[in-house]
Records
---
Amino acid sequence: MVHVHFWGTRGSLPAPIDASAISAKIRRVLRTVRDDRIALGDDATIDAFVARLPLTEAGTFGGNTSCVQLAGGSNEWTVCDAGSGLRAFGDHVLAHHAEPQTYNLFLSHVHWDHIMGFPFFRPSYVPGNVIRIHGCHPDLRAAVARQHGAPSFPVEFDQLAATIEFVTLEPGRTYDIGGFTVTAMAQHHPGISYAYKFAIPGASVIYATDSEHAFHSAEDAAPFVAFFRDADLAIVDAMYSLGEARYAKQDWGHSSNVAAVELAQAANVRHLVLFHHDPANDDRAIDRLLFDARRFEEITRAGTGLAVSAAYDGLELVVPDV
Ligand SMILES: [Zn+2]
Ligand SMILES: [Zn+2]
């Protein structure tokens, strides 16, 4: 089985929730308690009530940019993208493991939202750690290193204490890395991005962010459908609504919630996770995109159907072996 932990799910720019949004949630919940005459006697009743509330009221999709951890291949760490969510992941590992660790980071591309967490990845400051940064772009090192040093950052890249290696992967080739069979595929995005497929016997996960799926013909779609074919879990860029993607933000390099569902359906994916949420969207706007995606899936369903979720910072999923 593969465990998937989402440390950052926002696109383009971190988007922390603000005070007015939190107070609006509290007011809505208190009105529900009042209007429905809910008796909140002891702490256990309150806990049960809060557990029933939707994420839009008792939580948030979160604000960190792309960072998704996969576990199941080996005792090496596997992480997709080094967005601002990488800071929390690194702190979590350091809090639980005193001995040196090996990290395999896979970069979809080197746009800033996908690498901005690296200067705050504390394992890179610890001698003995090995960090391998994998990607298909030839300029991985330059992109990561230039975030460090004057005038932008107090620590030069070459001062980092961990052993940091850059590994250029070739799309279409299959690699054995960190216990996973890994394959990359080029996607439509300014400067190109790459999707990754991670497989172990009986389970496969696709990480496919920053990709514009707006297929004009079956020929356009075919290579993507083949890459996604029968995946157990697919984490897919669904930044926009269909209207935004088609009319206002065409060629911006991102997909709609509807395009993500269409691709997952065509490829017989079991579970689709909407990802790379627009920083302009609040929790209720993201929840509407999820609602619409599920509704679209329902009315176009053929066969057993597709589970659709929206990623949030802190979401953990288990992909069982089939
Ligand atoms: Zn992005
Ligand atoms: Zn991008």
---
Amino acid sequence: MMSGPERRTVRDLRRGNRAILLRALYFGGPASRQELTGATGLSAATVSNVTAGLLAEGAIVEAGLVESDGGRPRVLLRVNPEHGHAIGVDVGETHVRVELFDLAMTERAKADYALRPARHEAGLVARHILAGIDVVLAEAGVGRERMLGVGIGVPGIVEHGPAAVIHAQTFGWESVPLGTLLRAGTSLPLFVDNGAKTMGQAELWFGAGRGARHAIVALVGSGVGANIVTDGVTYRGVTGSAGEWGHTTVVVNGRRCRCGALGCLEAYVGAEGVLGRYAEAGGVITTDDEQVALAALLEDGSAAARQVVEETVAYLGAGLGNLVNLFNPERIVVGGWAGLLLGRRHLPALREAAGRHALAQPYRQTTIELGELGPDAVALGAATLVIESFLQ
Ligand SMILES: [Zn+2]
């Protein structure tokens, strides 16, 4: 197919201007036509034409008046939250959660299905997702014609394409075509991506990453991953697996990781790795629930517990320093349930540890912050995959 700037047609340009204005209103609205002209660099005539089209199709609505110095009051415009809806799905270790949002990302309905830790059979997960879609559509009273699509956050590596083939070792999923399984039960547009990436995108759009064009969301839970955004775009690599930060080596011939390799960052700072090191140091873990166990370890004042926490901060700091050196981000957001538990108590120490490993110049240009949305933002993030497509 011929492409490139020299082949852009008038229709392409119009579609491009539409996307520019929709995005400006979605992330910066409400705004007057004059503010939009200033914010986008488009001409006043173009803004007037394109917003007239968007108003006619109902994608945007008027949102009151704002005084202008000396002149007539100006009409404010914003995206119409009712124009479309998106479903976000979180396929997690212990549940499948399906949530329906309007365009303003207000949650309108929700369905939850528990998964037993050893029961991640792909057919069962697909049935839960399809059942959840029907439930939230009925509960919210939203017709299928108003649905923009379904975003799904899953563990592991996702091959992008209609079949959405997933490789998730922790689930025992080898080449599972989740897209094909779901296509048998729904005709809605489907967007599948790694759950850490979707949670990262939620932080970037609505949380601690807001407004940053070069940002990394570093997610630490049972697994460890990163969502890397350079110049406003998520870095994916050839097949979409980029950002597997947890499987970068921090100790040659070190601890065995869940991926099979030795010495991965995840084997040291992922919840399982931290608790494993604590047990080896003589610590006693009294629960199967990783979240409860990690919280207890962080509260534990014993010498063994303090040592394990100190080492965890050092390893995670080294991993963050690597991110600074490789990507020169303006902001790193530490999220994921384990990252939040650790960061709430030890953020200054984490920053300091990162600074010991990062080069001084890029380290000075970056800030390391905690995520704002909490660990349950996977479904919200999955819904942003749908909204992203709508905004283009
Ligand atoms: Zn690994």
